[in-house]
C-alpha cells in the first residue's frame, strides 16, 4: 500500500492542501473540486489529545460488554439505514465507483455487527488448573482486558470499512482510540465516528486527529499509547516501528499479489475474477491481483480473453452507474502508475492494452514480459496495472509467486484438488484463495501478510484479540 497516511500525498505536486488557517481541504479525485475540509492537528496539541484519550480510556473501561455490543449493533443499523449516503461520500472523497462504494458500506455494516458479537462472545475461558498434579485444589479462568489507548492509522483506499476494522474491535474490547484517517479521505471516518457517538458511545472514547507526519509521530511515540494499528506503506511502517518504543504493533503493509492459472482451470471463471481483482477500486487495493502466472498450455487463450474483457471496462465518472473504473486518488498517483508501466516497457515489457492517462484517470493496463527485477514486478503497484507471465510448470509458478519479499494474498485457479492443496501449502501468503482472485476478503477471516514487515492480523476476532490482553485469576480452595 502506498505511503500516504502520516503525510498526505500532495494533489498538485505541492505541499498538503491547506487554507492557511489550519484546515486541510478534501478534494474530489475525479472533479478536483473541494468537497470539505478538516481541522489540521499539530504536534503541539498532543498533550491535549493524550489528556482526552486518558479520559476516554477510563470511560471505555467502565462500559460493560453489553453496553459496548449495544453501541456497535446500533451503529451497524444506522450505517445500514444510511448506506447510500455513506456510499456517495466514499465516491466523492475516494473516487470509488458507486457500485464499489455501496459494497464497502455494506461491508462496514458487517464489520460493526461482527464487532458487537465479539464483545459478547470473546470474554475469556476456564483454565483447568486441577488437571495438573499439585494444582488439584485450584480453579480459575482468564478474561480478556482492554489494552487502554490504541492509535489507529488508516489509508485512503477503503475510507469507511478499514476505519470500521480499527474502531469496531477496539470498542468491543473496551479501549479508547486515537484515530488518524488519511488526510485525503477523512470525511467517511468522521461520519462513522459521529454515528458511533449517536449510537451511544461516549464521545471521548474516540479522538480524531488530522495532520501530517509530525502529529502522527508524536502520537505513535506517546508511552500511554499501548498499541499502534496501522494500514499503509512500508516506509511509513518502518518509521512507526522506529518511533513507537515498547508497544504492540499491528501492520498491514501491502502486497504484490500473484494468481496462478493452471492448465486445468476454468478459464472463463479465471479471466472474470482476475479482471475484477486487478482493476477493482482502480487497482488501489492491497490484495489486488498484480502478477498472473499462467500455464503455457492455456496462455494464449487466457491472454486473448483477459485483454478483451479489460478493453471492455468503462473508465470515467465514478458517480455513473455504468462506470467500471474510476479515478486514482490523485493525478500524481496516476502519473506514478504510468511511470511504472513506462519503465517496464522501456526495459522490454510488451503493452497489451491501456497505459492511457487523463488527469487522475489511468486506464486499466495489461503488460506481458515484465522483467523480474523491474519495479512493476518487485513492488506493489497500487494501481490498475497487471502483468501476465507464462510458466512452464506448477513448480515454476509457485517459485515465481514466492520470489517477492512480502505477501498478503495469493490465488490459484484449478479443477484439481491435489493442485489446490499443494498451492495452499506452498504459496507464502497470508491467504490463499482457490478459484478466486487474490482480492477476495471476508471481514471475519484473519487478514494479514507473510514475510517482511508482517505483524498482527485484522479480521474482527483477530484484531479484537490483538487489542485485548489476558488476565488470569486463580483461586486456591486450600486457603479457605
From TrEMBL:
Pfam families: Aldedh. Residues 1-20 are annotated as: Disordered. One of its GO terms (molecular function) is lactaldehyde dehydrogenase (NAD+) activity. InterPro entries: Ald_DH/histidinol_DH, Ald_DH_C, Ald_DH_N, Aldehyde_DH_dom, ALDH-related_metabolic_enz. Residues 22-473 form the Aldehyde dehydrogenase domain. Keywords: Oxidoreductase. Belongs to the aldehyde dehydrogenase family. This is Aldehyde dehydrogenase. It comes from Streptomyces bingchenggensis (strain BCW-1).
